Amino acid sequence: MTDPIAAYEAAMRLALAEARGAGEAGDVPVGAVVLDASGAVIGRGRNDRERTADPTGHAEIVAMREAASALGAWRLSGCTLVVTLEPCTMCAGAAVQARLDRIVYGAVDPKAGAVGSLWDVVRDRRLNHRPEVVAEVLADECGAVLTEFFTRRRVG
Fold it and tell me: Which of 60, 86, 141, 148 is catalytic?
C-alpha cells in the first residue's frame, strides 16, 4: 500500500512554490494546487487578498476557481486539493460545496483550521459530502514558510 503522505509530497512542493510567491508579493504565504483524478495539476492558487483587496482571495479558493474553469464545471469530483496550511472555515466549506474527493494539507492551523484542529467542517455528518483528509504532508516545511514570513514582518 502506498504511503498517503509520500504520495502527495510532489504536489505539496508545487503548493509551497505558490506559497513562497504569495509571501514575496506581501501576502500570507499559503499556496494550493488542485489535481485531477489522474494527478495532473488543473488549478494553482496563492493567497492574494492584499493585491486584490478580496477577502475570499485565499489560495484554496483561487486554485478551485482555476480548476473549475479548466474543467468547465463547478463540481470538482475526482479532484484533490493540496494546500500548505489547513483550510479555514470558508475554504473547507468551499471544498465541500465543490465536491472535492480529497483535501491534503501541510501545516496544522490551531487558530483557524477547519479540517480537524479547531473545527472539522469537512467531516460533519450533517453535510451531504465529506472529502477524505490527508494531514501534515511536509508539515514542518509548510510551517517554516509561515514562521519565516511572520518573523520578518515583526522585525521589519
Answer: 60
